[in-house]
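Sharing a chain and its predicted structure for anyone who wants a worked example. Both blocks are below, sequence first, tokens second.
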Amino acid sequence: MNSTALTAAAFGDTPGCWPLLTANTPAQLWLRAVAAAGQGRYSSARADLADLRRRQPSCALASLSLSTEASLLRQLGGHRDAAGWDGRALALAQTAGDDPLALEARVDAVVGLAADALGVGRLAASARLLERAADMMDRAAAPPTRLAIRLAWVSAELAMAGGRGDDALTHARRGVEIAEQALPALRRHRVKSSVVLAAALCCAGSLDGAREVADAALRDTQTYGLVPLRWALACLLADINSATLTSQQVSAIRDDCAGVITRRGGRWTRR
């Protein structure tokens, strides 16, 4: 029962569920941490991830926990520090052998490294890592859907960093399409795919489209309690203006989310 409810919170249709059920196994600890991270509950997520590695320090699940740690840092600008966690995650995943989660762990780590490289301006390295991840996915029998969505996100972000708006839109729309096909599962991934699409529309010069997508996604983040994504959308709308909210309202949402993130253990990295 606990695993079912925690899976629904981490990768299902109840990403805003809180409080989360107790985790009794390492796998449940990872699910709890993923769900908590999506809500911006960083201290809770880090505690569960550390507990997981104490119980099971050398397996694909431990690798996934390291990749999740990296994502917590990346969400708040810590791409350089995140790379160390993703590198350790990849090293651990490569020793996982025939563990059923080995592929998932390897792809997660490689996509994470691509996002880390992108965040520090190493665009060519990011592109090579994304190609590696795509090749791993192509050779897999049935890779988890969430990996394809993550690959689309980072591919879109790389295209945006290179000023390629049309390519960014192609990747972002692919992420939205895959996430929509997965519903009601992966609700949080569907919301984040909208965040990426709104940014891609900005890059492509479609500000009206970006506002429409961002405003709708902002409402979803409130519905599902996705504070980090809500903060990111408010930051975007502060730059391009909302079609439905005043600039003061957008600023208030952004500042409120930042405060919640800090109180929940978020560690901001200033570049």
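Comments welcome. The two ends are 43 Å apart (CA to CA).
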